[in-house]
Amino acid sequence: MIKLNDIDVLVIGSGPGGMAAALAAKENGARNVVVVERDSEPGGILLQCIHHGFGMEIFKEDLPGPSYAQRFVEQVYAAGIEFMLDAMVIDIKPSREVVISSKTLGLLTLQPKAVVLAMGCRERSRAQIQLPGCRPNGVFTAGTAQRWVNIEGFMPGKKYVILGSGDIGMIMARRLTFEGAQVEKVLEIMPYISGLTRNYVQCLLDYDIPLQLQHTIKNIIGTDRVEAIESVQVDDKWQPIPGTEEISECDTLLLSVGLIPENELSKQAGVVLDAMTNGPVVNQFYATNVPGFFAAGNVVHVYDLADWVTTAGYKAGKFAAKYANKGKDLIGKSIPVLGGENVRAVVPQQISAAAKKSSKEIELQFRVPSPIEEPVRVVVRAGDEVLGTRNFRYARPGEMMDVTIKRKDIPERAESVTVSCEPRKRSK
């Protein structure tokens, strides 16, 4: 039975980040931990990701998404953590007052000592990328099609064009091919893929599915149902090149044009969002600017791997439990972490002055804005002082990178920390 009047840590979302946060909170002294999930089953998006590629870092096994989720579901139940399923958070305040609409419990108002935001992310829609053309049936996001095919057992079409080379889109190109559909092509407006290279190889190359880089959609043809797609090549400024138009007959268009952290609740709670990641600004404790609010996983920034989401959840849950137990401020004075040369955005965006003598490592995660197909060195600096470095064979936007530093190595006089990704020969 859920104890609603004395919750130490409330976790919003039961995906890999949320369940990891709940387990870590319990392991670090939180007595009553509750996970709120709007769906009827825990597991989040993992339940529809029936492909392999999960668990290599956490379990040292290559698992499909549902198997990965089930291992955590069993751990959560074994730890005595409660799931509140079929429950939607409809309001949340900076004071940590949380209003929930529950299918079984009705309308509830809770006051947890700490909150972990783990709502994940959502797909960009047609409206957000302003696709031209008519509005016929047959235009879906790749994630919607993934749920229909993998969970509902429903094929939304027979002949497909996919816009965007995100991981979900490439994975669905393969999945639909398995089910006997024809995938005509994958279009990508950038001169490089936006997903993981392994998915390009395993899902497109291995199944002879054409990928056209620097191409986008000029027109969607059809009235009641999609009948064809008119694609066009674009120049370096994303402008259509006249004379490069192609017509591809299809009955379904899937959109795989990026993911956005789901942060409507974060805004209600007064959490400051990063303009680059669209997720909360956090420090090394995954604490936000609002005392008692922590955030982890795809709600902060979109990860490549569920294993990394899980690791972030562990950290957020650990410090949420410490806050719930001691009410200790984990924000305080902070040093900003900035993206330097060839770095788009860095998480965490701040390093708290708390535990300034700590020798524990702080992991900084980031992405580059464009590919660098040569050896690079990541350099972390405070002014002219080098705090840490790491070498990579290349740097690609679709693959998250990381480097670690120690809090005690940051000079007291430091006004900021900068992460740069430089050609290796130029690094010092």
Textual characterization of the structure:
- With 428 residues, this protein is α/β, with parallel strands linked by helices.
- The chain has three domains: 1-122 and 260-329, FAD/NAD(P)-binding domain; 126-257, FAD/NAD(P)-binding domain, CATH 3.50.50.60; 332-428, Sandwich (Immunoglobulin-like).
- It is 20% helix and 29% strand.
- The chain has helices at 16-27, 65-78, 126-129, 142-152, 167-178, 197-204, 264-268, 306-326; strands at residues 9-12, 33-36, 82-84, 87-92, 98-102, 106-110, 114-117, 121-123, 139-141, 159-163, 182-188, 211-213, 215-221, 228-233, 246-249, 252-255, 259-261, 293-295, 334-339, 345-347, 350-352, 361-367, 376-382, 385-392, 401-406, 417-423.
- Strands 3-2-1-7-18 form a five-stranded parallel beta sheet, covered by helices on one side. A five-stranded parallel beta sheet has the order 9-16-10-11-12. Strands 21-19-26-23-24 form a five-stranded mixed beta sheet, with no helix packed on it.
- Helix 1 (16-27) packs parallel to helix 2.
- The N and C termini lie far apart (59 Å).
